[in-house]
Amino acid sequence: MTDETAVLSPSAAGSKEPAAEGGARGQIWRSRRYRWDLRWSPYAFVAPFFLFFAVFGLFPLLYTGWAALHQVELTDPDSMTWVGLKNFTRLWDDEFFWNALRNTVTIGLLSTVPQLAIALGLAHLLNYKMRGSAFFRVAVLTPYATSVAAATLVFVLLFGRDYGMVNWALSAVGLGAVDWQNGTFASQLAVSTIVIWRWTGYNALIYLAAMQAVPGELYESAALDGASRWQQFLHVTVPSLRPTILFTCVVSTIGATQLFGEPLLFNGGAGATGGSEHQFQTLGLYLYEQGWVNLHLGRASAIAWAMFLILLVIAGAARLLRGRGASR
Amino acid sequence: MRSLRAGRLTYVVLALFTVGSLFPLVWTAIAASRSNTRLAQTPPPFWFGGNLGRNLQVAWTDANMGTALLNTVVVAGTVAAGTVVFSTLAGFAFAKLRFRGSRLLLGLVIGTMLIPPQLSVVPLYMLIAELSWTDRLQAVILPTLVSAFGVFFMRQYLAQALPMELVEAARTDGASSLRIVWHVVFPVARPAMAVLAMLTFVMAWNDFFWPIVALTQNGSPTVQVALTGLGRGYIPDQSVIMAGALLGTLPLLLVFLVFGRQIVGGIMQGAVKG
To answer: Which pTM does this prediction carry?
Structure first.
């Protein structure tokens, strides 16, 4: 590659610099500084990332593992009592942990699957040549600009039991009102709706970008073979997008395991319990409840590591899938 | 690229999506312009009322919105600036410079994206408590000042957009690496830097989990933390809460109105190369 010669040639030239020449001292010094610069500046350029990551990422990561083996209270984080794996075995017997895990999986599926399916269809439509395409793209992305807090507060009102607009619309078409905050499935569906609303447009744009990279000849030959638009979508678009789809699946799954703000605020001021009967308490929320409401930082750390292990399993599964699917 | 033209049905469906995307936002404004009692009636209001000024004012004072907005601007601005500068430096090194261990280091950068933020929250909290940073803005700024996504994004951009000849020419002229960054890399990277700045700003503005742990509502909260305080009154006034939500969202909506196309382009660009 050309960049190798670029790196090598100045230093090679520098070493050829004859020291015997009179008045070459400045030049030697310059070439030495030059080589030093070439050699070390890449590290200087990547150093900020790794410095910040070491202090605010890696150290906390390892320390969480350490804290998970101790009893630590938020009120006095300096005094730690070694308890071994007790925090983890406790989780194993903790029905609220399993409940939170179950809820996280359900809400994750309820939000991720429709979200990505809708995004795919939406991207397909946005890919047509049309007037106002820029407007539509910005419009569907707008929810991305709203915060979890603002969006959830609005949806709490829309999903209100007595005066909410959703229930009003449901009764207007002759269906009964739903108790969105207290029903188990209903509340999880409502929380998922917030996620879907905020992220569908974003994922649609990612799909759209991938679709525009699909070579047009593929569609042309498909059309020659008499494939309808729907068949082209199924047999050309979707297979070409496989890596992108997998990527969004992984990203959305990571997002879903970390779900926190929506269930916290959907509770209407009741705090971190995730509903009167923990019906929409996620793992993220349960971690927060254990750590910052019940003040058990050790247990919160154990939950964090449990979440991490679950993610690793998912990432491993995705890798396996990709390994099997990739023919390139 | 496809040359298929959109049929009428496409427009209809896209218009429906647009309504679905924008309706909750418009309705926030409608609810913010009504009274709490009007919101507790059927059918819910579909058009604006006359209470917007009053609700905005109450939300402004109750949630200390002025301070919160200022804090959020400081946080999001600093985080965006830091992320862009550090990401461009690292991205340039990974894209165009040869150095021992670069592949391994890049792998590490990407690997950090897999770590869920919750995993670090407990010790991070202990760390800032140790430094007496609780309720201080640096508690939110410093841990998010670098981003693996940013490094990766800039690397992908510079690998394509920065011709190696430019760097070589500058080297032949005897420019130091820092000068090359300043006079060659930054000018070339400017479009991607702008996109990354906007994406980071939006993300930092909306960040919720860490700020709510690190900042309390009584200290110096960001807008998102302040908003949760509004909902916790004895008898929460929904129209005031909606006014608060509006205040917290409007600045970003304005950014979207102005830079929407660039943000869309940036997300799509990052997606293709990512």
So the answer is: 0.84
Residue A80: predicted pLDDT: 81
Residue B186: alpha-carbon gap to chain centroid: 22
Nearest Cα neighbor of B111 from A58, A8, A264, A73 is: A58
Q: How many angstroms from the chain centroid is the CA of residue B252? A: 9
Q: Which residues make beta-bridge pairs with A70?
A: A82
DSSP symbols for B62-101: HTTHHHHHHHHHHHHHHHHHHHHHHHHHHHHHHHH---TT
| Torsion sign over Cα A321, A303, B149, A38 | negative
DSSP state of A181: T
Average pLDDT of the segment spanning B51-71? 86
- How many other CB atoms sit within 10 Å of the CB of residue B56? 19
Whether residues B121 and A34 touch (CB distance < 8 A) is answered with no
Judged by a CB distance cut-off of 8 A, whether residue A91 touches chain B is: no
- Chain A's closest residue to B159, CA to CA, is A3
Distance from CA of B213 to the nearest CA of A (A): 8
Residue B109: exposed, middle, or buried by beta-carbon count in 10 A (0-12, 13-18, 19+)?
buried
Strand pairing class (A70-73; A76-82): antiparallel
Residue of A nearest to B3 (CA): A129
Residue B123 is nearest to which of A67, A216, A264, comparing CB atoms?
Answer: A67
- Work out the mean pLDDT of chain A and round it to a whole number: 83
**Token pair for B223:** 């807008």
- The two tokens of residue A197 are 């609303």
pLDDT greater than 60 at residue A36 = yes
> Could you check whether the bond before residue B43 is cis, i.e. omega within 30 degrees of 0?
yes
Rounded (10°) angle between helices A133-141 and B8-32: 40
| Alpha helix segments (H runs only) across A235-282 | 238-240, 242-257, 261-265
Residue contacts between A and B (CB atoms, under 8 Å): 323
Q: Are the CB atoms for B164 and B98 separated by under 8 Å?
A: no
Nearest CA in chain B to A42: B93
B2-44 pLDDT, tens per residue?
A: 446 667 888 999 999 999 999 999 999 998 888 777 877 777 8
Q: With an 8 Å Cβ cutoff, are B231 and A284 in contact?
A: no
If you measure CA to CA, which chain A residue comes closest to B92?
A45
pLDDT at A40 over 80: yes
Contact between chains at B242 and A139 (C-beta distance less than 8 A) = no
- Joined together, the tokens standing for residue B122 give 């407990």
Q: Which two tokens stand for residue A13?
A: 């030239």
Q: How far apart are CA B222 and CA A37, in angstroms?
A: 41
Supply the ipTM of this predicted assembly: 0.85
Q: Which tokens go with A233?
A: 């979508």
CA atoms of B50 and A110, how far apart (whole Å): 38
Report d(CA A103, CA A101) in Å as an integer.
5
As given in the structure block, the two tokens for residue A102 are 């179950």
The verdict on B19 touching A (C-beta cutoff 8 Å) is: no
Number of H helices, E strands in chain B: 14, 0
pLDDT value of position A63? 87
